User: Fold Armadillo repeat-containing protein 1 from Periophthalmus magnuspinnatus.
Amino acid sequence: MSAEVDALTVVNQLRDLAADPLNRRAIVEDQGCLPGLILFLDHPNPQVLYSALLTVRYLAECRANREKMKSELGMMLSLQNVMQKGTSPGETKLLASEIYEILQSAGKEAEQAEESAASCRRKAHFFLGSNNKRAKTVVLHIDGLDDSSRRGLCEEALLKIRGVISFTFQMAVKRCVVRIRSDLKAEALGTAINSTKVLTAQQVVKTEDGGERIVPFQEGAAVLVEENTDIPDYLPEEESPSQEQDKAVTRVGSITDGMGWLSTAANFLSRSFYW
Assistant:
């Protein structure tokens, strides 16, 4: 990748890498990627900002990363700025708030004591957010979720729904764990995913004895899906609008400083992972 690679391309690649739990420690331990993600949290492009927040949310799921992320210069302040900014969409503010709460709680004795007993349960439920009453978690079993192209179709469908905060995939078991606003119905997720014509969504629910069962969405029970106009759809990388120099990622310094970081991040991606 060249130094001219745009911000949206880099942050989307980091987001996809961070979705794999095996990559999260390496991304945070790299000297350039975490400071760069913090720069993205101030980016004027809502696509870049939201993708950066998803990336940080993935990284924060690894307990070993949280203390370093919390202490990284500018991380907590940038999250606060997103939460308080009047122009930030509601879903963006809610996601930033969840990340802030997770990092604030890093190192607490109660969290450490719970880690062993809850580790398996937490791996199955990525976006818990139990402290946030405005959001809830829905687990979907998706028939047809067989490869990266099908996952891309599912991502596009979910990103269009107003009220979807974040999501993660468990490809081995064909599941998607979706964090949504409390007023959004799970049926809306099923309607959007089923509209792809190649994927079929069913809801995974807990039984009284602690087990699980898969509940199909009722036929003919499609609900109106309100599309998310605040956060534009992710564009293909070759059509990204963030090529102009005045949109480069910067905090303090010149345009070339921001582009220098993008080059560093691009080199990290190319040398650290197989594509």
Notes: The first strand starts at residue 135 and ends at 143. The CA atoms of residues 40 and 49 lie 6 Å apart. Residues 1-5, 120-131, 231-259 have pLDDT under 50 and may be disordered. The two ends are 13 Å apart (CA to CA).
